[in-house]
Write a structure and sequence with these properties.
This protein is an alpha/beta fold and 437 residues long. The protein folds into 3 domains: 210 residues, NADH-ubiquinone oxidoreductase 51kDa subunit (Rossmann fold), CATH 3.40.50; 89 residues, Ubiquitin-like (UB roll), CATH 3.10.20.600; 93 residues, NADH-ubiquinone oxidoreductase 51kDa subunit, iron-sulphur binding domain (de novo design (two linked rop proteins)). Helices cover 44% and strands 11% of the residues. The protein is built from 19 helices and 9 strands. It has a 5-stranded mixed beta sheet with strand order 6-5-9-7-8. The chain has a 4-stranded parallel beta sheet with strand order 3-2-1-4, with helices on both faces. Helix 7 links the parallel strand 2 and strand 3. The longest helix is centred in the C-terminal third of the chain and has 22 residues. The termini are far apart. The mean pLDDT is 94. The protein binds flavin mononucleotide and iron/sulfur cluster (SF4). The site of iron/sulfur cluster (SF4) has 15 residues, from helix 16 and helix 18. Iron/sulfur cluster (SF4) binds next to helix 16 and helix 18.
């Protein structure tokens, strides 16, 4: 099996697989119709653990391990919640996946439900993804009609229902505990952890939150075996990743590639982004929360968790944003500051106030009103986000700002210098020594 050509999550793209009959012709629902119910819950969790699959929503937590944390000995229902909020700037893979291949998500969810002893799942979808929500609802009703969902599936005694829940478009509702609050009809604000959702999540019941792409990898793993999946990736993390590549490339879009693919191959190969437009200046490798890489760092980066960590950034959600030499880093970071300050849920003072400070300093630098010491202030605020907030929203802004300033400092300084020069020339043009003596 060539590792370059294997597609796990995007194999059915462009084939009309949102229709259940097409999905079945392409081999879909084969696990649910055959071997799934012969396997015990623990055997499935073991398979997922051996595959090396890690969560594709951003944090990269091992999926099988997360599933193993869900207790089975409580008298409470177990819920599965699909995180389809997809609000991280630069990320646009999940709604493509759901639109192109919704039945694969339903199949992955059914396998997860069997493994976790759950009979109810919610798909929490960003409210703006209207056509995606329609596609999902249509696919779910087809699955009910085909006996793939509902009571006593295939006469096995196993019953499972899926509900689609529309979010209201807040980035923070992608954080799993804010998402659960929002699902319950409360304010979308993150909860303090522990307890973690696996133990006490939706309606205080054990809840497994997984990303769309994570669950869509499950049918392939069951069909082809955990070793085959693991072999697609690196030694430390198995499988493929669906990357969304945007910015200064010839073919921006959604591409699936093996974990560990060199970043430059992803940007230049005709099977992926097809080449960089202009001269490369930097890449944000995994969504706006991930520190930027310089062009030099990009040359040695491979797209996996370890390589990203060694370059002091993160793999994130696989949102690769490409920036060429014509781009000005000051307005770019200012936009990020605007976004994070706007999306702060307001619970923690360092985030509520600090993100606003960072935003205002960046706005003033960009307006040509920056002062000496502004950059130090941003760096110091960024440090103070660390470990002082309930969720990683503010620390993400801190990490992103620090990397931008450390790696492209001269651009920020030149804005501040222009303000200094402006002031100096104003003083010299109004200062007429003769007026004083
Ligand atoms: C501010 C914030 C936004 C997030 N947005 C998303 C999102 O849109 N989709 C997602 O799957 N995970 C998102 N996450 C990560 C989730 O909290 C969680 O780790 C993930 O859904 C778990 O699924 P996985 O293990 O399958 O990756 C976000 C985290 C934070 C802190
Ligand atoms: S860090 Fe920000 S977004 Fe996260 S809980 Fe605190 S205030 Fe809310």
């Amino acid at each position: 099996m060539s590792t370059e050509t294997v597609k796990v999550c995007t194999a059915n793209f462009g084939k009309g697989a949102s229709d259940i009959s097409v999905y079945k012709q392409l081999g879909g629902y084969s696990c649910v119709s055959s071997k799934l119910f012969d396997l015990s819950q623990f055997e499935i969790i073991d398979i997922v653990q051996r595959s090396g699959l890690r969560g594709r929503g951003g944090a990269g937590f091992p999926t099988g391990l997360k599933w193993s944390f869900v207790p089975r000995n409580t008298d409470k229902p177990v819920y599965i919640v699909v995180n389809a909020d997809e609000g991280e700037p630069g990320t646009f893979k999940d709604h493509f996946l759901m639109k192109e291949d919704p039945h694969r998500l339903i199949e992955g969810l059914t396998i997860a439900a069997w493994a976790l002893g759950s009979r109810t799942a919610y798909i929490y979808v960003r409210g703006e993804f209207l056509s995606c929500i329609e596609t999902l609802n249509k696919a779910i009703s087809e699955a009910y009609q085909a006996g793939m969902l509902g009571e006593n599936i295939g006469g096995t005694g196993f019953s499972f229902d899926i509900f689609v829940h529309r979010g209201a478009g807040a980035y923070i509702c992608g954080e799993e505990t804010a998402l659960i609050n929002s699902l319950e009809g409360k304010k979308g604000q993150p909860r303090l952890k522990p307890p973690f959702p696996a133990v006490s999540g939706a309606w205080n019941s054990p809840t497994c939150v997984n990303n769309v792409e994570t669950l869509m990898a499950i049918p392939w793993i069951l069909e082809n075996g955990p070793e085959a999946y693991a072999a697609l990736g690196t030694l430390q993390a198995g499988g493929t990743k669906v990357f969304c590549i945007s910015g200064d490339v010839k073919k921006p879009g959604v591409y699936e590639a093996p974990l560990g693919v060199p970043l430059m191959e992803l940007l230049n190969s005709p099977q992926y982004a097809g080449g960089i437009e202009g001269k490369l200046k930097g890449v944000i490798p995994g969504g706006s929360s991930c520190p930027i890489l310089t062009a030099e760092e990009c040359e040695k980066a491979t797209m996996d968790y370890e390589s990203m960590a060694s370059l002091k950034t993160m793999f994130g959600s696989g949102a690769v944003m490409v920036i060429n030499e014509t781009r000005d880093m000051v307005p770019l970071l200012k936009s990020l500051g605007n976004f994070y300050a706007h999306e702060s849920c307001g619970q923690c003072t360092p985030c509520r106030d600090g993100a606003g400070y960072v935003q205002r300093i960046l706005q003033s630098i960009h307006k040509g009103e920056g002062h000496e010491g502004d950059l130090e202030l941003i760096l110091s605020l960024s440090e103070q986000f660390d470990g002082t907030t309930i969720c990683p929203l503010a620390p993400s802004l801190g990490m992103a700002s620090t990397a931008f300033i450390q790696k492209y400092r001269s651009e920020f300084e030149s804005y501040i210098q222009k303000n200094k020069d402006k002031k100096a020339s104003r003083i010299s043009s109004t200062f007429r020594p003769g007026a004083f003596w």
